[in-house]
Amino acid sequence: MIIMIAAVATNNALGKNNELVWHLPNDFKRFKELTSYHHIIMGRKTFESFPKPLPNRTHIVITRQKNYNPEGCIVVDSLEKAIALCPENEDSYIIGGGEIYNLGMTYTDIIEITRVHHEFDADTFFPVINDEDWLLVESEPNFKDDKHLYDYTYETYIRR
């Protein structure tokens, strides 16, 4: 199954200047739990936003740049090629960025969203989740605390 996973603000903001504009430790923990030991698909800029490859995951990086070959990663030039490299009977995750999320909506079976209940100034946005195409099947609210500046909700959508 192809699963799209993202942390998304109320105004669909993803980030600015290739960085997240919030810090939610529980969301990082959830991301790690869901994606570990799976294939993760991302654009080059998303990959380059990490200090190093994420442990216990197979990284597939999409780029148009020739001779781009970061150590420990599979590099392809299209989302279709990335998906073709994922095991058919296992979950694989599309993890960003904005352009890859837009392209990935067609191929995605499930969307895992952490909805950050705040609007942010951003330059990258998540595509609109159309209620005609997607059904919200799970919603788990979480509230701000000493480690989380914003309320947030884990949302799971399945394709109708």
From TrEMBL:
CDD domains with a match to the protein in the record: DHFR
Catalytic activity: (6S)-5,6,7,8-tetrahydrofolate + NADP(+) = 7,8-dihydrofolate + NADPH + H(+)
GO biological process: dihydrofolate metabolic process; folic acid metabolic process; one-carbon metabolic process; tetrahydrofolate biosynthetic process
DHFR domain location: 1-159
Gene Ontology MF terms: dihydrofolate reductase activity; NADP+ binding
Pfam families named among the record's database cross-references: DHFR_1
Keywords attached to this entry: NADP, One-carbon metabolism, Oxidoreductase
Top-level taxonomic group: Bacteria
Family statement: Belongs to the dihydrofolate reductase family.
PANTHER family: DIHYDROFOLATE REDUCTASE (PTHR48069:SF3)
Protein name: Dihydrofolate reductase
Originating organism: Flavobacterium geliluteum
